[in-house]
Design a protein that fits this description.
The protein is an alpha+beta fold. 36% of the residues lie in helices and 20% in strands. It contains 15 helices and 21 strands. The strands form five sheets. Strands 20-19-17-18-16-15-21 form a seven-stranded antiparallel β-sheet. A five-stranded antiparallel β-sheet has the order 5-6-7-8-9, covered by helices on one side. A hairpin with a 4-residue loop joins strand 13 and strand 14 (386-391). Helix 4 crosses helix 5 and helix 10 runs antiparallel to helix 12 (398-442). The longest helix is centred in the C-terminal third of the chain and has 45 residues, at 398-442. The radius of gyration is 32 Å and the shape is globular. The chain starts with a helix and ends with a strand.
């Protein structure tokens, strides 16, 4: 799935055909990062939904309404104040960026005609909805981005809006033969990657599609092509971009079985039935089998986006189904974290124990020199060879003062030893609960919650009722295949992690895990073969994506052979130790990695 610049171009074209010059009748903010406009124009009433969600940004026309909070959020109130009943005069996309500008004219409080710009940036976790004056000064945004959050660009009231050029990519619509050759074929990487690294708005799936139409393997390196193949690739790229310029869009959704796996605004020939395989008519054995992929075409890209994103409601339903488990885990985590902080504070108070021991020893050695009724005694500390002043109780003898300090030392020492063990246990409890919280985030089916509930019951977070039997689960680990054909498995919870690592995997298989954070165990089955670099990278991406760091830009991954992973006796499910490992740093993006359902 890729909401890339081409889909955005299709959206802009569709919006210009349908809602240009419409008036904004209503403005609602049903979610904290989502807006819903009701528009009235020559084509009747329409609704425009837009979201700056980090996980699921979107913008499309819809017939569906959504309930709004009784009290409108501040950003919604600001938009109502400025552009309620305003008219959309222009809708455009800069280059092939994943950005849409809505230029809106309206009357201010004095009845003067004013212009504002509403910008929607559909850029994954960097998505935002930004409201600006005509000169580009930001009035407000649905997400505030300070310098502490981004060193590239602040998105705050009063700042000037600009599009950060962080990737140094070119506009593919302006590409020439010379610029294409220079941009693509001078990169020492795969052809597919070189294309989407060179041009803005092109997703990996589109780059792969261009390679497929050219008849070359996008995984080959750029220097593997001869001059004729390079020219053929450029011509296909140019033809592809010409269709975009001419608005020759074909919105569609690709299904694998009943599962929507991709959407696009152009026909994806690479997903045609048995692409790259022998002709079905020439091979009777293929004719009786159903196609691997099916394509459903639509007359509207808004319909495509709304239909595709509706499938994500399954995720929302899982969140609702797991709400009771999340509440249990959250409550237990808060309690354990508070206990951990309190224990650490108490442990810090025991730091004085050695001082009291030294006071006692020095008093036993030099106490004879103390005068009766003295409140202190200065003596030589033979541990540091420096003078030290020891406070004394003037009602006690030096020997009694020494005993008093030894008693304090003994008490603090016992406290230190007890707290050290308790802190270790509490930290393990926190780590265990955080791993369960991560498993809840990973769950995609109701069956995935069964084992999580079982684990919470086993460890006493959920009371086991009399007569309860161990539930049977159909949940299985995620199954992926690397670009080199190696099978990769991802545990959905701690029980599956243990089973994958210590029952399913063999000693020569490779084991991956996000470093220093809760996450899934990833097993790559080697079948006795040596893994290519691409498979290591893809397995690392899976380990990063299915971890607490999935929203991070970079995640460090530990990996080693399974035979070097050990499980301590009595440890919680999913907990392992290892002492020698390799590391790699990846961006946790698993788009393009084939999943087996």
């Amino acid at each position: 799935m890729a909401l890339d610049g081409i889909v955005v171009a299709n959206l802009v074209w569709e919006l210009n055909q349908t809602i240009l010059n419409s008036r904004i009748s209503k403005i609602a903010q049903p979610e904290k990062d989502e807006l819903l406009f009701t528009l009235k124009g020559q084509n009747g009433q329409r609704r425009l939904a837009m979201s700056a969600s980090a996980s699921l940004p979107f913008l499309y026309l819809t017939d569906q309404n959504k309930p709004s909070p009784l009290t409108a959020p501040n950003f919604c109130m600001l938009l109502r104040k400025h552009i309620a009943n305003g008219r959309i005069t222009k809708i455009h996309q800069p280059g092939l960026e994943r950005i849409i500008h809505f230029e809106i004219e309206h009357l201010d409080d004095l009845g003067d005609l004013c212009h504002k710009i509403l910008t929607i940036e559909l850029m994954g976790k960097h998505s935002n909805i930004i409201f600006c004056k005509e000169d580009g000064t930001i009035i407000d945004s649905i997400k505030h981005i300070s310098a502490q959050v981004s060193s590239i660009r602040e998105v705050l009231p009063g700042r000037t809006y600009f599009i950060p050029e962080t990737m140094q990519k070119e506009n593919p619509l302006l590409s020439t033969k010379e610029s294409f050759f220079h941009s693509v074929f001078h990169k020492p990487e795969s052809i597919c990657k070189a294309i989407y690294d060179s041009y803005t708005g092109i997703s990996p799936s589109i780059a792969n599609e261009i390679c497929f139409r050219t008849g070359i393997d996008g995984d080959y390196s750029t220097d593997s092509l001869n001059e004729e193949e390079k020219l053929h690739l450029y011509h296909n790229f140019d033809w592809f971009m010409s269709d975009i310029k001419d608005a020759k869009f074909a919105p569609n959704i690709i299904y694998k079985g009943k599962e929507p796996i991709e959407f696009a605004s152009v026909s994806l020939l690479s997903y045609s039935d048995y692409a790259g395989m022998p002709d079905r008519h020439d091979n009777p054995s293929l004719q009786s089998n159903p196609p691997i992929y099916t394509t459903e075409e639509y007359d509207s890209v808004s319909r495509v986006l709304e239909t595709y994103y509706a499938s994500r409601n399954a995720y929302t339903r899982i969140r609702q189904k797991s709400s009771d488990l999340r509440r249990i885990v959250t409550t237990a985590l808060e309690r354990s974290r508070k206990k951990y902080l309190l224990q650490q504070k108490q442990l810090k108070d025991t730091d004085k124990r050695e001082k009291y021991r030294i006071y006692g020893e020095l008093l036993n050695t030099y106490g004879y020199g103390a005068e009766d009724g003295a409140k202190s005694l200065e003596v030589l500390n033979y541990y540091t060879n420096e003078m030290i002043l020891i406070p004394l109780d003037d009602q006690l003898s030096p020997t009694e003062n020494a005993k008093k300090y030894f008693d304090r030392y003994g008490k603090l020492k016992r406290t230190f030893e007890a707290l050290t063990k308790l802190i270790e246990e509490t930290k393990s409890e926190v780590d265990h609960l955080e791993s369960i919280a991560t498993a809840l985030d990973i769950a995609v089916l109701e069956e995935d919650l069964v084992q999580i509930r079982e684990e919470l019951t086993e460890f006493g977070y959920i009371r086991k009722r009399r007569g309860d039997k161990k539930a049977k689960t159909k949940s299985k680990p995620f199954h992926y295949v690397s670009s080199d054909g190696f099978h990769m498995y991802v545990g959905k919870n701690n029980f599956q992690n243990d089973e994958l690592t210590f029952q399913f995997a063999t000693g020569g298989d490779w084991w991956f895990h996000a470093k220093g954070m809760p996450g899934s165990h990833v097993i790559v089955k080697t079948e006795g073969k040596e893994l290519p670099d691409a498979t290591f990278e893809e397995a690392g991406k899976l380990a990063g994506f299915y971890s607490k760091g999935r929203e991070n830009e970079k995640v460090e991954i530990d990996y080693l052979q399974r035979k070097n992973v050990k499980k301590p006796n009595g440890s919680a499910p999913g907990f392992v130790v290892y002492y020698t490992n390799y590391s790699l740093t990846i961006h946790p993006d698993i788009s393009g990695i084939e999943q087996i359902f």
